[in-house]
Design brief:
The chain is an alpha/beta fold. 15% of the residues lie in helices and 29% in strands. A seven-stranded parallel beta sheet has the order 6-9-12-15-18-21-23, covered by helices on one side. The N and C termini lie far apart (45 Å).
């Protein structure tokens, strides 16, 4: 399978390492709009995001992964690419623990030492970052990001585009509305509306 990584920043370096650690994929290209034209180095294509059309036309068995940490930009790029869902793939680091009952959306990345427990539902293009813990029956909306060591205890529901900061903890049965941000180290003990930033212990917005 030929993998096209969208984005060439710090997050994409980690995604690249995950792909290499799995060991059965070929990284075909990095696409990022910092490039204004296509070039090839060490048998890998580099070019602007618009070059995805060329790659689809000229290569078989292509899958895309959007390796950009910013939730809004990931969503924007899915619109820009305008490809069927079948063109996206997800990656799970070999050291992560993911229950067989978990539902994992397209374009999602689960990083090293993360844990996702029974019957959790992870949406499309989500980042479950290093060492994050997603306990049983959580629901995570698409384009969300749980940062390193973030912990979602049981039956937490978070909406689209939510960012859970590093080391934050969400107690059971809490809802976090879409596109809200939970600050690093915060402890969320009650539900947070959409489009809010909550910080502190307990978290306040």
């Amino acid at each position: 399978m030929n993998i096209v990584i969208i984005g060439e920043g710090g997050h994409s370096k980690v995604v690249k390492d995950i792909i290499l650690s799995i060991g059965k994929f070929n990284i075909l290209a990095f696409l990022d709009d910092k490039y204004d034209q296509m070039l090839i180095s060490d048998h890998i294509f580099y070019g602007p995001i618009s070059a995805y059309k060329y790659l689809i036309k000229n290569y078989m068995d292509i899958k895309f992964i959007i390796a950009i940490g910013n939730n809004e930009i990931r969503k924007k790029i899915t619109t820009q690419l305008d490809v069927d869902d079948d063109f996206y793939t997800s990656f799970i680091h070999p050291s992560a623990i993911v229950s067989s009952s978990v539902k994992l959306g397209i374009g999602t990345v689960v990083m090293a030492n993360a844990v996702i427990n029974a019957e959790s539902n992870i949406g499309d293009h989500v980042i479950i970052n290093t060492g994050a813990i997603i306990e049983h029956e959580n629901q995570i909306g698409k384009f969300s990001h749980v940062s390193p060591r973030g912990t979602l205890t049981g039956n937490v529901k978070i909406g689209e585009g939510v960012h859970i900061g590093a080391g934050a903890t969400i107690i059971p049965n809490v809802f976090i509305g879409e596109w809200s941000v939970i600050g690093a180290g915060a402890t969320v003990v009650k539900s947070i509306p959409s489009y809010k930033t909550a910080i502190g212990v307990p978290a306040k917005y």
